[in-house]
Amino acid sequence: MKILIVEDDDKVAAFLARGLKAEGYLTQVITNGRDVLEAVRQFEPDIIVLDRMLPQVDGLTLCQQLRSQQVNARILMLSALSEVEERVKGLRCGADDYLGKPFHFEELLARIESLAKRGLSPVQSRQLQVADLLLDLDTMRVQRAGRDLLLTAKELAILELLMANSGKVYSRERILTNVWGLNEDPLTNIVDVYMARLRKKVDEHHPQKLLHTRRGLGYCLQAE
């Protein structure tokens, strides 16, 4: 499988190329937005890892251009702008997935593997579902048993992380890194506070509980 990496930070680009090559992918690196369309025509990638903040042409514009030219490669957008409204912008411009920086390589790899399993059609249903819990990634609308849940931006980010990796246990530190970034104090109990709020909204009044605490390990979301 061929992956085009569009990233202007040389260190990040080299890290991605090295890691993806080690996983058996054929990669090519482009460091500016100006050369992307030509690279896509020549390299014909299956997946494009696209940084949002690029010189010459920004990632959102590039995403729109690629889709307008019927490029069917799956697009994983990377950006330090990881708030819900920013992810929604990226998805609405045609990205298949959106990952905030900083990120764990294993999560990026899991998202690439998930994209690789999808069909080639650019018009796809971008939804996560576990039991009767549904998260629409285009609108960031959450429903449990058909009823809308009103979640904050951070609650949505935690829920998306856990739903995208259903059954996988995430430690408090990993949730903190993925949702808040690396600048938060790892000793804070903010993850526990948000998980308690999220559990109340998602599981309260439902006999089947989806959010689980694994003592000494962390949290996971799965239908048991």
From TrEMBL:
Domain OmpR/PhoB-type as annotated: residue spans: 125-223
One of the record's GO molecular function terms: transcription cis-regulatory region binding
GO biological process: regulation of DNA-templated transcription
UniProt-listed CDD domains: trans_reg_C (cd00383)
Keywords, sorted A to Z: DNA-binding, Phosphoprotein, Transcription, Transcription regulation, Two-component regulatory system
Signal peptide limits: none
Segments forming domain Response regulatory: 2-116
GO CC term (a single one): cytosol
SUPFAM superfamilies: CheY-like (SSF52172)
Modified residues (4-aspartylphosphate): D51
Top-level taxonomic group: Bacteria
This protein's record includes keyword Transcription: yes
DNA-binding region: 125-223
Protein name per UniProt: CtrA
Organism from which the protein derives: Alishewanella jeotgali KCTC 22429
